[in-house]
Amino acid sequence: LAAVAPRGSGAHLSWNARYCCGEAAARGVDDVGFLEKVVADARGRVAGAGKVFGLGFSNGGYMVSGASRLFDGISPWGGHDPLDAAAARPASVNATTPTPIFMHHGSRDGVVRPGGCCAGASCCCDIDARSGDVCAPFESVFARWVAVNRCSGVERVHVGRAACDRGVGCAANTTACLHKGLGHALPQFGPGPTTADSVDFFMSLLGQPAVVT
Q: What is the pTM of this model?
């Protein structure tokens, strides 16, 4: 298992993930194309790199979910592409091969609000201005992934302080956790799922045991 950590662009590093954020979005940087090259390079450099996964936080969460077709599984935290008009954007979402996803959001996230962007308030980074009427609550985005991954139903489980919805009968693992009391943060430790669980999620897709306990 090897980790690759690409950097965004601009004075304040950012990714152009359609609705978010910063200089990269303002300049229209082709970051999907950049990540495509990064993934290809990783497959060439790392022996046995048959699968490549994407984990991103905030702007990076928007990026990995918006470019999900490049990955064999994704785990966005605190940011998510709303998948609006997914059928019209085959370059972003792989509609023929469902993508495993383990998505997370904080119930008290004031930057990328879990209820959507943004009723009666201004969101970070002009997300609300960019997205217009297509902003979607976290639960609605998950419902769209349930459809993309062809799940037959959803079940809810509680892990620590997180309420997690898991798709049932899906063509690919589809899970979303809303973390009670969590703000705009990427937890390393806690009573609920953390980034370590994202790593374990990727390992499970490889048919391997957990590497972090």
A: 0.86
